[in-house]
């Protein structure tokens, strides 16, 4: 691992939070970059993570603030490119200004990343990947599949509606992504992950009907999958979806087979098999609280 503090951009997201906890458990000195203090990962009692400083950065931050965020750092992890996260281009520009020829960058990208990618975020991740590769720093890219939690965002009144056709998705647990990224970062074998691009997926490719059956078994409700069109999807009640356009484009990528291929990178990096959707539900039952008997689906 490169020396110095680890800057974790996107620390307030699902994967970023889990990654911050893993690095804290390993005694890693971190600088957690979040859009506001309320999003900073904290211990169950509300205390800050040990060996972790919090830096608030957003899209409106100036060059001096980005430079300060990377001061004394040896590794930058880009774990979020959402609207609330700092623009990776600004972080990478700060790295170039600091002369990061000996620095290290780990980018959590998306499967399907390409200049002409189907999913909106896939196209943006591709531009970040290109900038990372051109940064002059040592780099590793983890292209991540759709997270398990996303599969239940479209469930309403016991119907999983999505414009994903009969496509399949090798969805993955955020915990497995965090474990794989931690393994890459803390690997004591020098340079073994330099210039590598990994596909981070779950162990099985699930169709919409498979997801619905698993949810039905776990919740005791008659959950079913219903294909819908992209046009009709705009009228769906989707309280768990923050960016509807991005979600619909992601469903189109699923329908086109972008996320179907299963990879064993989690097992190779983390040293254990990736979790199934069913086992993830067992580990995180609160994710399904609104779908259980006696609760309101939505």
UniProtKB/TrEMBL annotation:
Q: Where does this protein have coiled-coil stretches?
A: none
Pfam families to which the protein is assigned, alphabetical: NAD_binding_10
The record ties this protein, via InterPro entries, to:
Ergot_Alk_Oxidoreductase (IPR051604), NAD(P)-bd_dom (IPR016040), NAD(P)-bd_dom_sf (IPR036291)
The NAD(P)-binding domain, residue ranges: 10-187
Q: Name the domain of life this protein comes from.
A: Bacteria
Q: Which residues cross the membrane?
A: none
Q: By what name is this protein known?
A: NAD(P)H-binding protein
Species for this entry: Myceligenerans indicum
What is the organism lineage in this UniProt record? Bacteria, Bacillati, Actinomycetota, Actinomycetes, Micrococcales
